[in-house]
Amino acid sequence: MFNVFNLFQSKPSPDKIVNKWCSDIRAQQRVLDRQARGILVEEKKVEQTIKQLAKKGDIKSCKTLAKEVVRSRKQRDRIATSKAQLNSISMELRRQLSMLKVAGTLQKSTHVMKAVNQLMSVPMLQRSLMEMSKEMMKAGVIDEMTEDMLDSIDADEDVEEEAEAEVDKVLAEVTEGLLGSIGSANAARLSENNARVSEAEENESDIDLEEMNSRLSALRS
Fold first, then answer.
1. Structure pTM?
2. Residue 90 φ/ψ, nearest 5 degrees
3. What Rg, from alpha-carbon coordinates, does the chain have?
4. Dihedral (C-alpha) 13, 14, 20, 21: value to the nearest 10 degrees?
5. Out of 32, 175, 195, 213, which residue is the most buried by the measure of CB atoms under 10 Å away?
6. What is the pLDDT of residues 147-186, one digit of tens each?
């Protein structure tokens, strides 16, 4: 049945649509900023713990925590990349808006399509980007989303043998050369001097490690 109210319903103008998208993008950038700050705070706590454990000669625990630092730094790098991609989408949308008088409508953009596809693999952005991508499809800015952009999110989540050099670098940096590749001699000496650690101290260390690992994992997810 014909609805008379449809006569008074008009589609939002392109500039209003773009302004809404840009506002949503700024909101997502703030979310990423908060996550990055939270990760950095926990990372600094872990580094302090590494220094303390290094003085006790607890090399095994130091390496475990150093791997968490490597993961955290990589996550902060990914967040910085995601922010840059969000910013590039916003700039492209603004550029299209400035050309609207000439083009008449918003144009399809492979740049926006590629950036949205890549950002869709960031868990905390998926929900909002899914909604935005639907609106962009309706506006003709991007094509229908594909499923081949979800492969890279966990590619380097685990730090294994190929990243051992990064772990050693973090150990050397945090302990100022006491541990890591440039402090291997010191590490061996510390290990000998502190081979006998009381069971209570070991249990306490394990609890702290579990706590820190769980906090960092929660922030990275």
1. 0.73
2. -60, -45
3. 25
4. 160
5. 175
6. 554 444 444 445 455 478 889 899 999 988 887 654 454 5
Residue 17, token pair as written in the block:
């649509």
Q: How many CA atoms lie within 13 A of 215 on its CB side?
A: 17
Ramachandran angles phi, psi of 206, nearest 5°:
-60, -45
Check if the beta carbon of residue 21 is closer than 8 Å to that of residue 135: yes
Identify the H or E element spanning 195.
Answer: none
Amino acid 175: pLDDT: 87
How many Å apart are CA 121 and CA 148, to the nearest integer?
Answer: 10
Phi/psi zone of residue 107: left (φ > 0), alpha (ψ -120 to 50 degrees), beta? Answer: beta
**Residue linked to tokens 């590494």:** 50
Q: For residue 1, with 0-12 CB atoms within 10 Å meaning exposed, 13-18 middle and 19 or more buried, which class applies? A: exposed
Q: How many CA atoms lie within 13 A of 196 on its CB side?
A: 0
**Burial class of residue 173 (count of CB atoms within 10 Å of its CB; 0-12, 13-18, 19+):** middle
Token pair of 152 as six digits: 């890279």
For residue 36 the two structure tokens come to 């990055």
Let me know: does 49 contact 206? Beta carbons within 8 Å: no
